Amino acid sequence: MAALKGAFLSFGAGLLGALPNVVVFQFNPAEVTRNPSLPIPPSACSGSGASDALQQPCQPGESISFKLNIDATEQLAEGNPIAAASGILPTLSALELLMTPASSMLIDLGSLLGGDEPGPYEFPPAKLPTVLFFWGPFRILPVAITSLSINETEYDILLNPVRASVYVSLQVLVPTQLAGDTLANGAYKYSQGVKEVMAALNLANAVEFGVSAALSFG
Predict the structure, then answer these.
(1) How far apart are CA 157 and CA 205, in angstroms?
(2) H/E/C letters for each residue in 42-104?
(3) pTM over the 0.90 mark
(4) For residue 184, what are the contacts with CB-CB under 8 A and spacing of at least 6?
(5) Of 2, 34, 87, 95, which is the most exposed, with the fewest CB atoms less than 10 Å away?
(6) How far apart are CA 64 and CA 36, in angstroms?
(7) pLDDT per residue over 82-114, tens digit each?
């Protein structure tokens, strides 16, 4: 069975008016750094009376970072016309547009096909597209890409990059940040449900490893 590839999936991204933006990782990252964190760290005792240090305003957040390697060498050797004309610019551009509000797109397929132009007061506030980070069937997370650091290391004769490393930083979004976004909320709840099931499996493992005896105070 071939290994799954990680990916970013962005629906309603505004590409040519309606197309989704899908970036499948050419090479899976060798390492992924995850940093779950509380919205508000428990406060120290202030001497002002009893307080609930465990109370939180919303779900825990999580930041994720990893490095992607992108290389057109194989495609160039196979005579891929897109790689020959533009190197890895299509992939880099798709990654960068994951950070661009749809309202900022300059090319609108509807306009090109003769659709109605928006009126002077019909432009909505800028809003980032919904981005899902696919990291296997058990982790499909709604994220905001907070930064990309692109290190281009090789170019063709037209100065198109043909090899690069991209350092990606993500912030997982929680339901209180996803008002009205059914797709993103569904992805979060699915992944959270899987996490709870996995934690239950860990409890079963703990019992098998004899944790009951280890925690016995008799």
Answers:
(1) 57
(2) CCCCCCCCCCCCCCCCCCCEEEEEEEEEEECHHHHHCCCHHHHHHCCHHHHHHHHHCCCCHHH
(3) no
(4) 130, 132, 142, 173, 178
(5) 2
(6) 9
(7) 999 999 999 999 999 999 887 666 655 444 444
Beta bridge partners of 36: 62
**Cα distance between residue 5 and residue 54, in whole Å:** 38
- Show the tokens assigned to 133: 């980070």
Under 8 Å between Cβ of 170 and 67: no
DSSP collapsed to 3 states, the chain: CCCCCCEEEEEEEEECCCEEEEEECCCCCCCEEEEEECCCCCCCCCCCCCCCCCCCCCCCEEEEEEEEEEECHHHHHCCCHHHHHHCCHHHHHHHHHCCCCHHHCCCCHHHHCCCCCCCCCCCCCCCCCEEEEECCCCCEEEEEEEEEEEEEEEECCCCCEEEEEEEEEEEECCHHHCCCCHHHHHHHHHHHHHHHHHHHHHHHHHHHCCHHHHCCCC
Structure token digits, residue 5: 């590839």
